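ok so for the tutorial part 2 we go from a plain amino acid sequence to predicted structure tokens. step 1 is just haveing the sequence, like this:
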Amino acid sequence: MTEKMKKIIAIATTLITLLLLVSSCQDRKTYADYLKDESRAIDLFISKHNLNILDEFPEDGKFGDNDFYKDKNTGVYFNVIHEGDTTQNLQWKEEVYVRFSGLEYFMTDDTTKYSNFKSVFPEEIVFIGPVNSNNKSSYSNPGWVVPLSYVGHNGKVKMIVPFDVGSSYDRSQYQPSYYELVTYKFESRY
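step 2 — the prediction. this is what the tokens look like for a chain of 190 residues:
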């Protein structure tokens, strides 16, 4: 093989490799793509279940079965089923025990509904304040914290949680979640 032919083969191989690299990079989803997919999935879920999205939290705190308030800071949708004991405010660094049922990932074909009601130990949150950009990473599931400004001990909600304020699994899989029931028990009143 001549030197000229070796150069042509090397150039052709390099060009083919570059073309393959560029085309494979274009097939990957961006974070913005995942957010768009999530937004469409949540809108479809809301439409499919005839949910009424409230711009303002109800003045009397009462929700209809299909009324969901959308928190402007986090994008979490929730419905207060039972406000619980709100006579004492949640204290800073207080432990909150969380149990849930009917957890579903509605952007997948997975039809399983998950629960931790039969688990020996509930999930725990150490409350350090409402979810914001400074403390979001301090919570295992920041979405669970959002309703705590509106419910007390033994409070019950149902909620739609966007993946960026969901569990580490939700964030890694870009999966929003729906919970049929989330209950809160405050350690100081347990």
